[in-house]
Amino acid sequence: MSSNLPKVAWIGLGIMGSPMSENLIRAGYDVTGHTLEQDKVDRLVAAGGTGAASIADAVREADVVVTMVPASPQVEAVAYGPDGILENARPGTLLIDMSSITPQTSVDLARNAKDKGIRVLDAPVSGGEAGAVEAVLSIMVGGEQTDFDAAQPLLRALGRTIVLCGPHGSGQTVKAANQLIVAVNIQACAEAVVFLEKSGVDLAAALDVLNGGLAGSTVLTRKKDNFLKRDFAPGFRIDLHHKDMGIVTDAARTVGAALPVGAVVAQLVASLRAQGDGGLDHSALLRSVERLSGAQV
């Protein structure tokens, strides 16, 4: 594909990474992808991208490298070492890490990349699988203004709300706050669902009217059908929200912020995972409330 757009290497083609990389292809970008599962690479190729057998092969010719992997250890695994991004990308490359990781991991990555002449933005996202597919993600960015400006056209192909939140790590801090709000919101919705059902109310009607008032939220809009149908196919897995609640509770402790409700919801997420529901969507917090209310689930 002949294009004046920067050449992109995309590392991590999971629930979020696959549709996001395909949106870049649709926007005219030349995308070379690498991930651990060959069928995900095949999906990228079928969408018009190029597959790479290794991270080194993917990033060697890239102007921009995007990473979208589950957590800090995976970011470190793809960034560092002889086969990693920092050793194989060209000086001047812009590395945009869209994973949700600890703020400190982002700060360290930016510092280590600077020694190689590689610019870094942390750019975690909110909006889940649906937001990724529809290219309406909220993208919270940490890093330098000039790098943010350079990344804007690419990020606009992926999301709708794109904001530079401050220096390296700031995007991750805002994402941690996002995950706190989402988890508490899902928990409140789940408790309301069980209360409504046990009261014999028409649940669909109740959720519609609640969502039209002050109790309405993007969470309720996105997750209403999950609650009604007990459909917990993962858009965002409990395992990952468990990881994120660990990030926000740890970061809050570091800065001296109390999270009394967040800490309780973090434990509820942890207990759901311990009961074997880690692979389900985070709307499955409903199952935890049902168990506590005497249901066999």
What key attributes describe this structure?
297 residues; alpha/beta; six-stranded parallel sheet; three-stranded mixed sheet; 9 strands; 13% strand; globular
Protein model, in words:
The protein has helices spanning 17-26, 38-46, 55-59, 72-79, 85-88, 103-114, 128-134, 145-156, 170-198, 203-211, 218-229, 238-255, 260-277, 285-292; strands at residues 8-11, 31-34, 50-51, 64-67, 94-97, 119-122, 125-126, 137-142, 159-166. The protein is globular. The protein is built from 14 helices and nine strands. Strands 3-2-1-4-5-6 form a six-stranded parallel beta sheet, with helices on both faces. Strands 7-8-9 form a three-stranded mixed beta sheet. The mean pLDDT is 97. 54% of the residues lie in helices and 13% in strands. By secondary structure, it is an alpha/beta fold. Helix 2 links the parallel strand 2 and strand 3.
In short:
The chain has 14 helices and nine strands.
Order of strands across the biggest sheet? 3-2-1-4-5-6
**What is the typical, i.e. mean, pLDDT?**
97
Output the structural class. alpha/beta
| Strands, count | 9
Beginning-to-end CA distance, first to last residue: 51 Å
**Percentage beta strand:** 5-15%
What low-confidence regions span 5 or more consecutive residues with pLDDT below 50?
A: none
Order of helices and strands: EHEHEHEHHEHEEHEHEHHHHHH
Organism: Streptomyces clavifer
InterPro entries: 6-PGluconate_DH-like_C_sf, 6PGD_dom2, 6PGDH_NADP-bd, HIBADH-like_NADP-bd, HIBADH-related, NAD(P)-bd_dom_sf, Tartro_sem_red
EC number: 1.1.1.60
Domain 6-phosphogluconate dehydrogenase NADP-binding: 7-166
